[in-house]
Amino acid sequence: MTDDRPRTPAARPLLRRRQDGELIDVAGVAHFFRLTGDHTGGRFAFEAFTLAPGTIGARPHVHDGHDEYFYVLEGELTLHTGDGEITAGPGDLLAATRGTPHGFRNAGPATARALCLYTPAGYENYFRDVHAAVSAGAEPTDDLLAAFRGRYRTASVPAPPDAP
Predict the structure, then answer these.
(1) Does the pLDDT of residue 156 top 80, yes or no?
(2) 106, 58 Cβ separation under 8 angstroms
């Protein structure tokens, strides 16, 4: 299949140095957005994130407007899959495409580091919104997070009964 849409060539490749990005700390997860929709014409967003042991990264939810891809660099992520949990370690990749229930936490003994790709871009604004609300004094409750998720075509789903 080919894409016959006209393309506007980029002026030059975009180099982002190791320190270039936007750090958004949300509920114990340090999201470092290396690329946002502003850099990619809305095509995708790309982040590196870290999560301390015992931290819930995202309670189970489902996206209707974008896909998410997680690639584990260090440590382990316990991933909610819709019907249970699996553990992913360095080099493992999880594709949470639209309509796929997912969530993640660090149940391991070490800090986890991972990359996440969002396509199309836009969900980085969810993290900006939550960060702004919490910085203004709001508690990051499940209700608050669900309200913000709703703005970005995302819905919470019930967690398994034995989930933390």
Answers:
(1) yes
(2) no
